Amino acid sequence: MPKQIKQKSAIMGLAVGIVFLALYFLIPSYFPTEYVGKDIATPTVTLADVLPAEPQFRVTHIKTPDSVRAIYMTSWVAGTPSIRKRLVKLIEDTEINSIIIDIKDDTGKISFKVTDPFLKEIGAQEIRIRDVKEFIGDLHDSGVYVIGRISAFQDPHLTKVRPGYAVLRESNGEVWTDHKGISWVDPGNREVWRYLVAIGKESYNVGFDELNYDYVRFPSDGDMHDIKYPISDATINADPDLGKAKVLRDFFAYIRRHLDSTGAVISADLFGMTTSNNDDLNIGQILEYVLPHVDFVAPMVYPSHYPTNFIGLANPAEEPYKVIKFSMDEAKKKADALDLKLASSTPGYSVHSFGKIRPWLQDFDLGANYDAEKVRAQIQAVYDSGLDSWMLWNASNRYTEDALLDNSDIETVE
Fold first, then answer.
1. pLDDT of 56-90, one tens digit each?
2. 246 in a structural domain
3. Any idea what the Cα angle at residue 343 is, between residues 338 and 348, rounded to 5°?
4. Does residue 253 surpass a pLDDT of 60?
5. Is this model's pTM higher than 0.90 or not?
6. Residue 55 belongs to some domain of the structure
């Protein structure tokens, strides 16, 4: 190759190189570059950077109605939209304005996803209501008050993962079970109390307005001659008549103290005969011991559960008005006497304890056919006793709609 051509080629190569370098540094966007190094991150762009963020779901609460008229719903029904809509429609069409939904039933399982590490550690979560926040939110939007039911001391899951909390057989130290084969935790165990408070807080945080504690008692059936309460026995042995009641009184005081700051309303289910008996029914339940520590007490005054010849009735289930009216009248006597006692020792005391009574009523066939007439008779007995709130129980969640007033007629009972 001639010398001149070589020189021209070299000059042209140099020129091309200079142009390339100029373009590289002056117009870098034409030449994507990847930098590798621990101090330099590669920028990435995702859809989240360009699309507006979805608003976070906001949990709401509503005030307790002056007159609570409620029905019960299992967690399985609550978690099945195709089934629960039947009960939602019942609420829409009738005077019902509140609903009770299982948070923890007698299996010991918690029915929705939990976030508390302590609850996760116990492992009771069984997600039956996947849209619990949204469902409660929809109920609130319709003005429906939502109560969550928590089975307290009947808990086979907790006794399985924490056998040291369980009621035991005195003969061999094994976990004691009742006639149904269900195990219980010792009502005096404060770790159990802490667990029940944690469930209450978690439940209020997902939207439940009221926390309703059920099975707040000592066991009542099973081999009661071979039973040991590892913690409560000391209190029971020191006071055989009132020891169990004192254990439960301390529990309710603890619940009140540790949930007060949340704003949650607290209620407790008691045996129906606590309204008229003067002992603790051997399960630790005394109405006057519970009333000061909760917002509402729900005695289960199901007429079918009363013994033959109660107040002279051959079959109490056939006389629902008489059973409910008597029970509520007796409850009023106890509540009024409690108020007088507390007013004499507590400056400024002005609580009307009888107004805290909100009975469970029967809407199921047992001992008699519970048609609209019998269901309505119970409701009327509540009103005639001076109360205005009640809750209907049916384990299968089927209620007698004809016993309930239409939405347009509810003013007649307010």
1. 779 999 999 999 999 999 999 999 999 999 999 99
2. yes
3. 140
4. yes
5. no
6. no
**Residue 306: which domain range?**
69-413
Integer Cα distance of 17 and 58 in angstroms: 62
What amino acid is encoded at 284 in this protein? G
Dihedral, CA of residue 132, residue 206, residue 396 and residue 326, to nearest 10? -160
Inform me whether the pLDDT recorded for 408 exceeds 90: no
Residue holding tokens 């117009």? 27
User: CA neighbours within 13 Å on the CB side: how many for 324?
Assistant: 31
Report the candidate in 261, 125, 150, 131 with the shortest Cα–Cα distance to residue 207.
131
Q: Using one digit for the tens of pLDDT, what is the confidence trace for 300-312?
A: 999 999 999 999 9
In a domain, 56, yes or no: no
Same domain, 213 and 345: yes
Task: Identify which has the larger pLDDT, 322 or 46.
Answer: 322
